[in-house]
């Protein structure tokens, strides 16, 4: 089976679920604002936005809305690849997948694409309005560039996620390990914490 039929099946699965569950679709739209809002709220209670600008070099609102968008998009790829084998195991479909003539590599490449496209498109409702509000037309162009870079970055994570999934799912209670690996990946991506302030060892790993 080629890649196109697998992509077609995954698109039907993901988008059928999104349109059926309107709450999940709405949550995708508001999540970046919730993430950024809560983080900014706690940040403003203990510090000054001017200090953040002085240390990081960017407005905290721009930083957090961008970080939340990156987290949402990268997580879509990582979660789909890492958790799909567990999900198929629990619902009893893994024997049928293993017995099918489907190429495993093509399957894992196809799995995250539909949700990634949905998440990247959410940039039009998350970072684009904020960037336009702050920077005008230049902000719209910047938002489009960020969306393109996030898409490329998320696609580059597919191979890493496949390798991690292959290693993790050979171990018993792999879901426990995934709950540790996933936050570490997010931290090393610099989504929760500016990479320039990381210890040198962590910064070197994140740079790779």
Automatic annotation (TrEMBL):
<feature type="transmembrane region" description="Helical">
    <location>
        <begin position="180"/>
        <end position="205"/>
    </location>
</feature>
<feature type="transmembrane region" description="Helical">
    <location>
        <begin position="143"/>
        <end position="168"/>
    </location>
</feature>
<feature type="transmembrane region" description="Helical">
    <location>
        <begin position="24"/>
        <end position="44"/>
    </location>
</feature>
<keyword id="KW-1133">Transmembrane helix</keyword>
<feature type="transmembrane region" description="Helical">
    <location>
        <begin position="56"/>
        <end position="78"/>
    </location>
</feature>
<feature type="transmembrane region" description="Helical">
    <location>
        <begin position="116"/>
        <end position="137"/>
    </location>
</feature>
<keyword id="KW-0812">Transmembrane</keyword>
<protein>
    <submittedName>
        <fullName>ABC transporter permease</fullName>
    </submittedName>
</protein>
<keyword id="KW-0472">Membrane</keyword>
